[in-house]
Design brief:
This protein is an alpha+beta fold and about 130 residues long. It has helices at about 10-20, 60-70, 110-125, and strands at about 25-35, 35-45, 55-60, 80-85, 90-95, 105-110.
Amino acid sequence: MKLEKQICSLEHAKKLKELGVKQESEWIWAIMNIGAGQSAYIYNTVGDKGYYRDVEYSAYTVAELGELLLENVLNKNCSIYLDMSKIDNDWYINYRAGCIRADISMVGVTEADARALMLIYLLRNKLIKG
């Protein structure tokens, strides 16, 4: 499986950083300014050779996003359920928590993006902490 399908998109990585999510991931989206344009690439923090980068964003994996979704619930006394499904080419995630009175659903092109969208929604609506 290609790495791009296992990590969240650059767009979602930027939003998660803006929302204050700790920048701790095994993979990084790096942006380099080249002349009048920009170039984005992914690198592994373990094997980093210290190349020059202008901006970095954590490229969270499916597993890292799953931990963030489950560990940062504000009310630790509630049950939390994540349901994932794939229908045709889309990934669906449903988040149910005993402390949140509504089920929340998101859809993404990859499982990582569906999880990232859910995390963004929960953070923006202050249903979990960053």
